[in-house]
Amino acid sequence: MADLSKKYDVLVAGGGNAALCAAIAARRAGSSVLLCEMATKFYRGGNTRHTRNIRCAHDAATETLSGPYPEEEFFQDLLQVTQGHTDEALARHMIAESKTVLDWLPEQGVRYQPSLGGTLSLGRTNSFFLGGGRSMLNALYLTAESLGVEIAYEAEVIDLDIDNGMFLSATVQRGAEHHKVRAATFVAACGGFESNIEWLKQYWGPAADNFLIRGTPHNRGTVLKLLLDRGVQETGDPTQCHAVAIDARAPKYDGGIITRLDCVVFGIVVNKHAKRFYDEGEEIWPKRYAIWGRLVAQQPDQIAYILFDASSLTLFMPSLYPPIEAGSIRELAGKLTLDPDTLEATVNEFNAAVRPGTFDDTILDDCRTEGIKPPKSHWARRLETTPYYAYPVRPGITFTYLATKVNKQARMLMRDGKPSANMFAAGEVMAGNVLGRGYAAGMGMTIGSVFGRIAGREAAANARN
Amino acid sequence: MLATEKAGARPGSHATALLAEADRLMTVCNSCRYCEGLCAVFPAMEMRRAFPDGDLNYIANLCHSCGACYVDCQFSPPHEFDVNVPRVLAQVRNESYAVYAWPSALAPMFARNGLAISIVAALSVAAFILGFAAWHDASVIFGTHTGPGAFYRLMPHNAMALLFGLVFLYAMVALAMGLRAFWRDAGDPPPAGGLWQAIRDAGSLRYLDGGGIGCYNHDERPNDRRRFYHHLTFYGFALCFASTCVATLYHYLLAREAPYPWWDLPVVLGTVGGVGLIFGPLGLMIAKLRRDPIMVDEQRLGMDFAFLAMLFATSLTGLLLLVLRATPAMPLLLALHLGVVFALFLTMPYGKFVHGLYRFAALVRYAKEHKAFTSK
Predict the structure, then answer these.
(1) Please, how many CA atoms are within 13 Å of residue B212, restricted to the half-sphere of its CB?
(2) I need a labelling partner for A226 at 20 to 30 A (CA). Which of A283, A294, B19, B123 fits?
(3) What is chain A's mean pLDDT, rounded?
């Protein structure tokens, strides 16, 4: 069992991708490292367990990537999804570093594979982990252990002693015991606050009770809050997060990837009043995947229903729960406890507005509606082939963007703008520096690996001085 | 917990609760696909949206039980989704052996298989000893016999050939009938070839490598030991079988009678194979004992051990016979060896041996499906 009484060069709070990259980088630079993961060994790794790929810039195709993804293109993608809400200098630095991270991760035991079935659109930009995120974590943990990183499980940082921007010690709870852990430097890599419903309610009100949390129940933001309370500068909009529409039948926490639904573009989406509320065919699906969480969160009772018919049933990736099936729209309304008259009217109105076109879900096709609000701009086909199907959906929160402000060294900045003497941050806890809003697949892992490695390296250099 | 209560359960008809659970897992895994690159099971799953029993039995037999998907799964127990693919597929696979057994009246041989096979083996050995004793007087059984034809003083060659020919033929027929039922149950595969691909995949145990770093056995550190021991066992068995075939040809074509000198082909093949068949099964047994029980079909471990023990005994008695063939121990050792080999062939269609056959057939089907799918 890891010794919590020793003084370490680097204390890492957290146990996911960012934490492991920091711990490994610091250890490789010669530091003694203690990593405190609050979860059990099985649940170690926070949301990294549920990830599957990382977005890194690269100048040429590789064994697993189908073509180059230049730094500038990555930056433009980031600009587009965040609508400019990013720290350009920091983002460009991250993207430049991501190029070497692509090779650095395999050196730590991580293995890649070509993009998975159903994710062809990411085959050029994103490196998929062979065996998924938990496999990646397993490799990083084995490497960290063999390098001599001390790993404490079920060890939660519950308090921080910080004096004028300088970390002195952390209070770590392991079992019933509290330990005062001293270290020359501190790396916060322990996630956002998405699992803390009470905190979410500060911004979302009672709506947050209806949010489902897609990953770990442990990201309660304890360390984030401690840091902000102890003078670290805050950045990012606290209401911004990665949120998608997931199956409403998913468990409150940790349902992961298999509860997601990729069928919005094939049908229509209605709220509890059986009314449509947004253009389902606005863009190619992966580009709009991450807006539907917020859209559903803004609907009454934070519930919505994706409706489609038999002609679309096998056009998208299967998911965990079977769709609700009915022989007529009225019967479907009954099963969904929606008003049958309104639902029938909504579907009829939509069907009547569909213009003829040639359906092709791989491009922005010419199947659209005319004369209704909101329109469906592409892939609009009449719902007319029985049976009819529906998936109930709720907002599924992946992670939050409220962050501790950092510089290019991943060093935290204090409220007065001065860099902290010895505190660094990586991963979700500082994601908001780069991601002001929006999301593109694999960026969470880029932020974790890149800033994790920087934080580890810098913390080790800091500890030596 | 019943499969129907867990996330991912589908209404549908399956012969057993176990198959329903396998269906549920395929539903979960098909919505995740993170394990796609680890082996053939997940790509085979992705080519399907529904999983009838025959398909589940095919997929279960495609699984080599490397354990990588268990270690890599974010939903494996204690997660509430309770995804344990290696164990459930091992259970389905083991049940499938009985489902396809021929004649079906002998399917119960698979229940308490270790006991059943031990009894058959003991009876066979006893029969050979008693047989020798009944046909000869004590001086032959406890005498020293050397030179060509020494073995046949205890049992005439033609009697030996007839007896083993018959039991071998029976085993072949029973295995073929089982294989036929297994093949048909998953429906017609695409017509594309695939035999050569399957031979390479089976011969190298391609899918026992955890996607490239070895299989998971007793802890989170993968290694390639099971594959190594399985190679010793399989190729050891193949060499021993080749030795028998060569000896038969010698006998009938060249009129050269056993025992053969140590440098002759049947002895060399048999000795090298026999050594593999000593260390291979031992290594596999140790690996099985150490394997994390959560990934194992513990109820049917007896079947695995019975088969490994039979292979080990075949090899041990054969090698002892080779070393001690010029001593008075020869007649008893011969009876022992013949008894064990006889029991091995007799029980082949009703024990773990069938895994090789169904695994190979599954690999052929997968190669065909893969070829047809990628050429689309």
Answers:
(1) 12
(2) A294
(3) 96
Report the DSSP beta bridge partners of residue B239. none
Homologous superfamily of A8-238+401-464: FAD/NAD(P)-binding domain (3.50.50.60)
- Bridge partners (DSSP) listed for residue A406: A412
Closest chain A residue by Cα to residue B69: A131
- Shortest CA distance from B77: residue in chain A: A42
Confidence check on the interface: ipTM exceeds 0.90, yes or no = yes
Average pLDDT over residues A98-106: 98
Cα gap B252→B248, rounded to integer Å: 6
Closest CA to A93 of A398, A458, A437: A458
pLDDT tens for A250-260 read: 999 999 999 99
The pLDDT assigned to A70 comes to: 98
The topology under which CATH files domain B104-192+209-352 is: Fumarate Reductase Cytochrome B subunit (1.20.950)
Chain A residues with CB under 8 Å of a chain B CB are 42, 49-50, 52, 111, 113-114, 116-118, 128-135, 138, 142, 251, 254, 256-258, 314, 317-322
Q: Which one of A132, A142, A257 has the shortest CB-CB distance to B221?
A: A142
Question: Is residue B1 predicted with pLDDT exceeding 50?
Answer: no
Q: Which range (A199-208, B131-140, B302-311, B335-344) has the least confidence? A: B131-140
User: Which amino acid, B372?
Assistant: A
Residue B138 has pLDDT above 80, yes or no: no
B34 and A132 in contact by Cβ < 8 A?
yes
The mean pLDDT value for B237-247 works out to 94
B3, pLDDT greater than 60 = no
Residue type, B298: E
Give me the percent of chain B exceeding a pLDDT of 90: 75
Domain boundaries, chain A: 8-238+401-464, 244-396
CB contact, 8 Å: B150 with chain A?
A: no
pLDDT at A274 over 70: yes
Give me the residue spans of the domains in chain B: 104-192+209-352
Q: What Cα–Cα distance (Å) separates residue B169 from each residue in B105, B174, B342, B345, B369?
A: 19, 9, 12, 9, 32
Report the predicted TM-score, pTM, of the whole model to 2 decimal places: 0.94
User: In CATH terms, are A8-238+401-464 and A244-396 the same topology?
Assistant: no
Residue owning tokens 């920087």: A454
Distances (CA, A) of A134 to A15, A249, A260, A392: 12, 24, 18, 28
Domain A244-396: assigned CATH number: 3.90.700.10
Instruction: Please list every residue in chain A whose beta carbon sits closer than 8 Å to the beta carbon of residue B35.
Output: 131-132
For tokens 């169904």, name the residue.
B358
